[in-house]
Amino acid sequence: MRPRPGDAGCAAGGRVGSARVAEGGVELAGRDDGMPLVVDQVAVARLYGEPLFRMPTDLYIPPDALEVFLEAFEGPLDLLLYLIRRQNFNILDIPLASVTRQYLDYVDQIRRHNLELASEYLLMAAMLIEIKSRMLLPPKKSADGGEVEDPRAELVRRLVEYEQIKLGAAQLDALPQLGRDFLRAQVHIEQSLAPRWPEVQADELRLAWLDILQRAKNNRHHVISREQLSVREHMSIVLRRLQGQRFVEFHDLFDTTRGVPVLVVTFIAMLELSREHLLEVTQAEAFAPIYVRLAYTPS
User: Which of 1, 106, 196, 270 has its CA 20 to 30 A from that of 241?
Assistant: First the structure.
């Protein structure tokens, strides 16, 4: 049940105090729990979930809470150049009186808020006043009788150099930049489908050799003999064995029935042929059987 304007109270929901008409709706003076009752009025804010229908009278706003900067300058030279270009002054003939007055007005504004920031601008203001005072004095001739340099010359030189650097920086910033204006395109290119045989590692070759030696020891005969073995001869034997064959398994090139010396010489012959690039040792994949083939096509 909603109270009507002019009702002195309402029994529903507890005792209600006297009502009064407020702008934007009807507001009841109070309730038993101390909270105001407002009818047909929009809350201006919510504080901890509770509606606020009028701004607090004791609201404190810090002095530096709201600041508006219409222009941002990188330093004293930037401000001075801005004042000159805004009024279309000739940078080679600066009216120091007008520019200094405007410059000091800006410095007075920032001094009220940030004295540390204003110190750099105060140094430039002192320089402007010093240049203006020198211009008011009668000109003095130099020792050689020539005219003295314009007191504004050094300031003009600094302003011109600063403007050139600023324009150059703006041109560099206008160039497209990776990550800001564009992204690097990446295209995946399929690799060639030709098989690439893995290289035979030295450890795998050593294990294969040890396996052959073990097999030779198992077939060893107790015959003492001395045989003259030639590495070159066994190189020819290996080459003849590989001719006409596409691949020959590594174990098939060794005759385990002839004893360890023949195996050693045959293995040395294979290593010599591989060093001279006359044969190739390869395998289809890691830990696969090792194969040997000729590295050239016989005529």
Answer: 196
Residue 249: Cβ within 10 Å count: 10
Range of the domain at 96: 76-137+150-173
Residue 117: what pLDDT?
67
Q: Which residues contact 253 (CB under 8 A, 6 or more apart)?
A: 238, 241, 266, 270, 292
Burial of 247 (0-12, 13-18, 19+ CB in 10 A): middle
Q: Is residue 212 part of a domain?
A: yes
**CA gap 99, 190 in Å, rounded:** 67
Q: Do 40 and 115 share a domain, yes or no? A: no
Count of the separate structural domains present in the chain: 3
Confidence of residue 19 (pLDDT cuts 50, 70, 90): very low
Inter-CA distances, 92 with 97, 153, 274, Å: 15, 8, 82
Domain shared by 25 and 81, yes or no: no
Task: Give CA–CA dist 270/253, Å, rounded.
Answer: 9
Distance CA 36, CA 41 (A): 12
Return the biggest CA–CA distance within the chain.
136
Letter for the amino acid at 58? Answer: D
Same domain, 92 and 165: yes
Q: What is the per-residue pLDDT across 133-154, written as a single tens digit (0 to 9) for each?
A: 888 887 777 667 667 777 888 8
In the chain, the DSSP E strands lie at 19-22, 25-28, 37-39, 45-47, 50-52, 248-249, 279-283, 290-294
Q: How far apart are CA 299 and CA 294, in angstroms?
A: 12
Bridge partners (DSSP) of residue 22 are 25
Residues 220 and 133 in one domain: no
Cβ pair 44, 55 in contact under 8 A: yes
What is this structure's pTM? 0.37
Q: What are the phi and psi torsion angles at 296 (to 5°)?
A: -140, 165
